[in-house]
Write the structure tokens for this entry.
Amino acid sequence: MAAAPDRPQKPKPQKSPNQGHRERARNRLLKVGGAALEDYELLEIQLFAAFPRSDTKAIAKSLLARFGSLTAVLAAPTERLKEVEGVGDSAAAVVKVAQALAQRYAREEIVKRPILGSWSALMDYCRAQMAFEDKEQFRILFLDKKNGLIADEVQQTGTVDHTPVYPREVIKRALELSATAIILAHNHPSGDPEPSRADIDMTKAIRDIADPMGIALHDHVIIGRDGHYSMKAMRLI
């Protein structure tokens, strides 16, 4: 009886040369948590999704060098992300998903409890939404009688240093939503949160219309890349 021919053996799957490093990075994240990792390590792990076999550490470090911080990387426009060598549509999409998740998380933190009792969470939320926008954005948070969030709306988007705001439109929208209080917020793309004279005058105009209507203006917060400015805290309103 003739011997059966040898069956060709299936080639063993090739392990990526980066696989061991990836496993160690993931295991470290799961063991010690994200707070213990450097920014480049978090970004490197996030980019694994876009690069199944390639080294992502160099790209993570290049992104941080270009934009200056992890928050700035997440907030960077897609086309600017793609200016970094090695970053294409897939990597840019992974970064923008991370930004969207961070924004959703920050929003949920302020929805869960009265805003005035979670001021740091509100500042984190505003920063995540606005700090790195390249145009001024005027945002209004509409609150109910328990200072819970009814709605958060961008009323106007302007230029790099100006946003047109119409006080009567602000109050009209508050009445439509049955809001009893509002918080105003806008960003300064220059990075400096110091209010201009126009910012102060506009805020007082809104307050003067809101007061007789029974709508409290709790604050107007200006968000910069490196901090924020509260008009209430500085006794400007």
Q: What stands out?
A: The first strand starts at residue 137 and ends at 143.
